[in-house]
Amino acid sequence: MPASPSEQQSRGRSLPLVGSSRQVPPRTVRLSLTDRCDLACVYCRPSRSDGYLENRLDDDAWKTTVRALVAAGVRRVRITGGEPLLHPRVVARVAFVASLGVEDLALTTNATRLAALARPLREAGLQRLTVSIDSLVPERFERITRGGDLAGVLSGVDAALAAGFAEVKTNTVVLRGENDDELPDIVSWACARGIVPRFIEVMRIGEGARLPPESLVGASEMRTKLAHLLAEERAERDRDRGPAKYVRLRADPRRRVGFITGTTDTYCGSCDRLRVASDGMIRPCLATNDGVAAMPHAIAGDVGGVVDAIAEAWSLKPDGETWKGCTEPTAAGVSIRAIGG
Ligand code: SAM
């Protein structure tokens, strides 16, 4: 099991301290509501019983943290986990973030509980939704997620489409020999519903580092598998919208397919994200446990103290010239589920 954040911290920092070159304040945050998850995807965690954080922010401490993030300049929020829909007050927490008037409010989910929660989340002010679906074949889905029920997830997607989110996307981690023959089917299924499919290179983070190296399917190979469906054009990023690069469909240029290349082409130089775990640990990068513990300030209701912790975490933001994110050896020792993926 990866070392706990406090254990990692006490061993000293692993990031090259060149983050002071970042002149802009943090704009984007991934807020993990919980490190709990009801699935155990083979590239993410070893089993469903691999241990959880001991302390989590209660509602008041969490609100203090979010107020501080907005005061520090954060304008785009993605709620994640673990599985955020397992948090008993996820709808109230979404409503709280929405009440602060952020520009963008999105959530990433495995959709096991989305059928019941899609409409309340939309009504609470959630704007965009990303659903992780690694296969449209029930047996494969069950194997990759270690027990997931595809039918329930697809009902969640239907509910999300009916709820009228501004955008629904999917994330598919492509694994050789597992789902790499499904890319055209996933594109057809998603685009027929107005969903934006995205394909992710497996990263050597957490359990992903323990998969055989040949599991990786690079984005260029993914594009080859989709060549008959995609326009022949350079994949382009959307401004202010994370690392995915998009290519339009030949048959309908309004529809796009995204690729996330965290392994073959890291994008750390343009990363403007902070991550806040459910225990209040603020991290500048997914690929290391380095971070700043803000829980004591958050529990005290001390917004200024959390703002200072955010500034300290932001100063640790690595420079993408020397730091290559999830290809760095530290990535193998972290839990994406605990940090917030
Ligand atoms: N439970 C939610 C879900 O399933 O979407 C949110 C958390 S999950 C950690 C967020 C995303 O991280 C998912 O789309 C998942 O596929 C991705 N992910 C986790 N481990 C990964 C790895 N080793 N390589 C690439 N993507 C990974």
| Low-pLDDT windows of residues | 1-12, 17-21
Major β-sheet annotation? 12 strands, mixed
Distance between the termini: 17 Å
Helix content: 25-40%
Strand order of the largest sheet: 7-8-9-6-5-4-3-2-1-10-11-12
Q: Roughly what is the average pLDDT, rounded to an integer?
A: 92
The set of bound ligands, ions and cofactors reads:
S-adenosylmethionine
One letter per element, helices H and strands E, the order comes to HEHEHEHEHHEHEHEEEEEEHHH
* Beta strand %: 15-25%
Shape summary: globular
Instruction: Please state the CA-atom Rg, rounded to the nearest Å.
Output: 19 Å
- Which structural class is indicated by helix and strand composition? alpha/beta
Q: Please report the number of helical segments.
A: 11
Please report the total strand number as a whole number: 12
Question: What labels describe this entry?
Answer:
341 residues; alpha/beta; 11 helices; 12 strands; 30% helix; globular; binds S-adenosylmethionine
Describe this structure in a few short sentences:
With 341 residues, the protein is of the alpha/beta class. The protein contains 11 helices and 12 strands. A hairpin with a 7-residue loop joins β8 (245-248) and β9.
